[in-house]
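Reviewer 2 asked us to include a model.

Predict the structure of this chain.
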Amino acid sequence: PLAGTFWSDLGIVWYGSLWPGDFTQFWFSAWVGNGQFGGNDVEWQQPWRPFSDNNDSKSYGARVVFSQEILGKKGPDAMLSFGGSFTGGKYDDWDELYDWAAGADLQFDVGSFTLQAEYIHRSTNFWGTNSQDPAETVFDNYETQAFYAFAKIGLPKKLSFISLVARIEGMWRIGPDWVGSSHNSLDPDDLADRTNRLMRYTFGVPMQLNAWIAVKPEFWYADYEHDLKGDFVALEILEDADRDVYRVGIGLDVTF
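Predicted model (structure tokens):
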């Protein structure tokens, strides 16, 4: 789920929980803090600086989670949980550029089966230069959407040490081209039409050999696409406008 701040910061947090029923919980939190710190874009390495803020605006956020335990009459009990989060605030010296993100998440567990999913949308204001008129400053947004879904199930009886895992994840980004591309431009006529997309699919068969050792063979496939005003173009950072990548690997976990 979304995190309000990455490090400690000055601010206040309010949280608590309600129990509408014996097996039902509603958890909530809200916070206000010093906020994000940046110039023309959020400082990714240190977006929050404790005891320091560069404008008069504060950042804020909230999260709610609903959880329901479902008693199984003829099978195992199940747990369903879903939540939503929001965070936002202005980050520049002049209190004009706004960055916000909102998301939702879901988890369902029953027996050896687990399902997880999450979605997030982020929007960041910025000031850029019109490529057709360098003297003109333009105002627009980066828009990013991402999601993932994960499912895991354990095999029955004598094969219970083996699980089947599947995961799908994707990201769409609308705005200027990736840094390093020769097509990089902040032309206001192009921004809304420039889209980068990434999709990845993972399949695995983790095996817990004993209490200390787990072997995790997996296969994943990724599909990258870059669109420039409706046409696919060569992009140095991805090598090709439409690129497929395959990987096969084996992981080893050793616990002491």
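The longest strand covers residues 133-154. Residues 1-6, 178-193, 229-240 have pLDDT under 50 and may be disordered. We have added this to the supplementary material.
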